[in-house]
Design a protein that fits this description.
The chain is mainly alpha-helical. Helices cover 79% and strands 0% of the residues. It contains 5 helices and no strands. The termini are far apart. The relative contact order is 0.16.
């Protein structure tokens, strides 16, 4: 993308790219956890790693999926030119949305064990599933970075990026209740 830091600050697609940096880091941590021998008692390192992963998934990953689906994907479809561009965008969006659901389902399979490890309770951890989830998420993020976000930038142009930026800003701005007299 753009190497100019000031331009990046004005580019809402960078919010999604920057989020992927943290997501990748955490799913690499999941790979570490999946290849670690877990013994009793559960070590402090394992407890902390599991707690971090549990919180991260609930506080960042699920929100990231929701924002992509409700904000980014909608604006990309609205701004895409009818025909081949719309078709390509819709195909990618369908793939990414299906991947979100699959990744969330894979998380649900290991989530109870992650939660128990975070509490320091020993479990028989499905390391193969954890590795599969980590690998699948890393591939998902790479596809977004390599294919979808560049297409989005091309489709959106300045007008669409402004619209997306406003939408994201409003989503993160708490609305107060106005007093009426």
């Amino acid at each position: 993308m753009n190497n100019n830091k000031n331009a990046d600050n004005d580019n809402p697609l960078m919010d999604f790219t920057n989020c992927h940096v943290g997501i990748i880091k955490n799913f690499e941590q999941l790979r570490v956890l999946a290849t670690t021998t877990i013994s009793e008692p559960v070590t402090q390192d394992i407890k902390q790693m599991a707690a971090q992963l549990y919180g991260f998934f609930h506080e960042v990953v699920l929100t990231h999926h929701e924002e992509e689906e409700e904000e980014l994907f909608s604006v990309v479809i609205d701004c895409a030119k009818r025909g081949e561009e719309t078709s390509k965008a819709k195909k990618m969006i369908k793939q990414l949305t299906n991947e979100h659901r699959m990744l969330e389902m894979q998380w649900k399979l290991i989530e109870p064990d992650i939660k128990q490890l975070a509490k320091g309770k020993p479990v028989i951890f499905d390391q193969a599933m954890a590795l599969r989830l980590a690998d699948n998420y890393l591939q998902h993020a790479q596809f977004e970075e390599r294919e979808f976000l560049p297409l989005s930038a091309e489709i959106l142009g300045d007008k669409g990026l402004s619209s997306l930026g406003m939408s994201i800003h409003m989503r993160h701005t708490p609305l107060g209740v106005l007093n009426y007299m």
